Amino acid sequence: MRLVVAVTGATGAIYAVRLLQALKEKEVEVHLILSRWARETVRLETNFDEENFRQLATCCYTENDLAAPLASGSFQHQGMVVIPCSMKTLAGIAHGYAANLIMRAADVTLKEGRRLILATRETPLNAIHLENMLTLARLGVVIMPPVPAFYNQPRSIDDLVNNFVGRIMDLLGLEHDLVARWSGMKY
């Protein structure tokens, strides 16, 4: 399996770290795009740096590399995840404004009819954010804010992150053991 993973400067870099680790464990071919601000946010929020990220991916690109293979529809892949996805990136994708490689790769993913998952990070949401999300949802984009689940009684931030990443893995059709499955309530 070949995937495109893009990381923007929105808070929540730990989600990208864990997704990349999980994909590497599954030997998925990952084409990673890091925005300038993603590199800064990763450094601020985690113990990782750009080089650590590069080691988790098969190939790594900067947001300004519009000559990269994944800027073309002829680059075959099974889906794209933007994690975390800033509202700037969301707006660019929603309006076909391919100002950088993240937005262009998402635009190509849409036009080729491939799965696109956006882990949107912002709160509270204003009407513009919601309209942009609705526009993309109507096109089949999965809008997936990292909302924690508490039914499995998480004991750590890692539990919360793993649950969210596990849900992304489910959407990509990848087996994992990141989270316990819901088995119903016991009365």
Can you give me a brief rundown of this structure?
It contains 7 helices and 6 strands; from the N terminus they run βαβααββααβαβα.
3D structure, described in words:
The protein is α/β, with parallel strands linked by helices and 187 residues long. The protein has one domain (2-140): Flavin prenyltransferase-like (Rossmann fold). 40% of the residues lie in helices and 17% in strands. It is built from seven helices and six strands; from the N terminus they run βαβααββααβαβα. Strand 5 (115-120), helix 6 and strand 6 form a beta-alpha-beta unit. It is globular. The N and C termini lie far apart (41 Å). The model has no long low-confidence stretch (mean pLDDT 95).
CATH homologous superfamily? Flavin prenyltransferase-like
Task: Spell out the helices and strands N to C.
Answer: EHEHHEEHHEHEH
Indicate the CATH architecture: 3-Layer(aba) Sandwich
* CATH T-level fold name: Rossmann fold
Report the major sheet.
6 strands, parallel
Shape: globular
* Radius of gyration from the alpha-carbon trace, in angstroms: 16 Å
Distance between the termini: 41 Å
Q: Return the domain count.
A: 1
- Which regions are unreliable across 5 or more consecutive residues at pLDDT < 50? none
Provide the β-strand percentage band: 15-25%
Spatial strand arrangement across the major sheet: 3-2-1-4-5-6
CATH class: Alpha Beta
- Secondary-structure-based class equals alpha/beta
Mean pLDDT over all positions? 95
Number of strands: 6
Number of helices: 7
Helicity, in percent? 25-40%
